[in-house]
Amino acid sequence: MSASTKPVRPALRPTTSAPRIAPPRPRGRPRVTPEQVRQRLATYCRRYEARVGDNGLPPFPAGQRESPQHREWMALYKAHRRLQDRPEADDVQRLPEFMAAQRASCAICGKRLDVAQARLDRIRQTVLHLDCLRLVTLGRLLGADAVERVKEML
Ligand SMILES: [Zn+2]
């Protein structure tokens, strides 16, 4: 086979842009932003004449089960929880300091914490596991009487 019969590759044309690759489609729910949650909280508070408490949510609408207000509160609670699941950058920077002060143990269950699991409870300025923080947040929302009833069920 002589050099002249070799198949010749077509010359690559210079491209002016990077190849188009579709970005991966996000899975599940779209990420909720702190601003979106703030707007939804403001709308809820206006509609139901409620105020946001120290825990970042309006009071649980006790006695309103299956009402539109109850459904909206639950949606807000879930959005708020999704935000809580993602620690904010400031919190992540402060975690090692808090963990050292607590000797890397969770203030609720007492078990060992690592940075990936640790979340800062901004109200008490302490470090907890994500699940432990959820438990505390739910307890704050439902109130001490509800927590006492839970204790009786354990
Ligand atoms: Zn814990």
Tell me the layout of helices and strands.
Layout: H1 34-48, H2 68-85, H3 89-101, E1 118-121, E2 126-129, H4 130-142, H5 144-153
Antiparallel strand pairs: 1-2
Bound molecules: zinc ion.
Zinc ion binds at residues 106, 108-109, 111, 128-129, 132.
The run of helices and strands is: HHHEEHH
Number of structurally distinct domains: 2
The strand line-up of the biggest sheet is 1-2
- Ends apart, CA distance between termini: 85 Å
Q: What is the CATH architecture descriptor of the largest domain?
A: 3-Layer(aba) Sandwich
Q: For this structure, what is the CATH class of the largest domain?
A: Alpha Beta
List keywords for this structure.
binds zinc ion; single chain; 45% helix; 2 domains; 2 strands; His-Me finger endonuclease fold; 154 residues; two-stranded antiparallel ribbon; mainly alpha
